[in-house]
Amino acid sequence: MQTGTVIRSTGSWYWVRLDEDGAIWKCRILGKFRLEDLPLTNPVAVGDRVEIRPEREGQGLITQILPRRNYVVRQSPRRKHDLHLLAANIDQAMLITTVVQPDLKPGFIDRFLLMTEPHEIPVIIVFNKGDLYDERAVDIFFEMKAIYEKIGYSVLATSVVERKGLEKVKEVLRDKRTLLAGQSGVGKSSLINAIQPHLNLRVGELSDYSGKGKHTTTFAEMLDLDFGGHVIDTPGIKTLSFNNLDPQNVAHSFREFFHLSAQCRFGAACLHRNEPECAVRLSLERGKVSELRYFNYLAILEEIEEINYWERRKEL
Length: 316
Hints:
By secondary structure, this protein is α/β, with parallel strands linked by helices. 28% of the residues lie in helices and 24% in strands. It has helices at 106-116, 135-150, 166-173, 188-195, 247-253, 255-260, 279-285, 291-315; strands at residues 2-9, 14-18, 24-29, 49-56, 59-65, 71-75, 83-88, 92-98, 123-128, 154-157, 177-182, 220-224, 230-233. The chain is globular and about 65 Å long.
């Protein structure tokens, strides 16, 4: 047996960099792997540490997944009852977004944070395409920056065209393993190319019809940075839904709500909606909690409860 790290995944094949000599082997999976009894479309993720058994020169079988330090999982975009692993064993995540082209969807940021917060994975939120921002867009950026920095997330602004903010991005990425994610069309590949030109990632354009991005990255891959560290590039995300959460998971993953819940009458069991003596709602009334975050939270709760209702009905 040999051990190594998964550096690329295309669904049925996994490329593993061996610890012993750095050679890269193309591998298949032997048997079935599950994640805490949850169904997965891809049981092995980029970043996983694995044991492999050689089949032939340069090719092997993954026989075991070594214990994970953390992982990021989302609902499968194709099979809504299954989950899809985005990455494992990361130091941080960087969410690339923009205010325009495509237009900002604030709820998407909070949905992404639901995937990282349970494992306390640090997240840097990068607002790209700053050269396209008019005065209103600049105001929106500073509003979002204030909301998320107040609760402990790092927020950066970048422009590939004007080459602004790129050194700061490199500083944040240096010597870390970082998951890169974002909605389609936000300029993730362009940003990576700007800080690492030799990678020469394929760059797409916005769809003229929908104004949304087209996928340019089609599989997850770990890329080496010549200034130290690695990034795990993932396909652009169009939407984020959840079939693996319950309302309590959501309440605990909005970090400022969870901290305030100690002051709620019902403590950590409070869902911060209509419960009496709710510290979150009181803070909202006093302007100490973001309305935007709160209404995004309510929308996610409603969505999850509706999914759970129909799941229960299906079982009857």
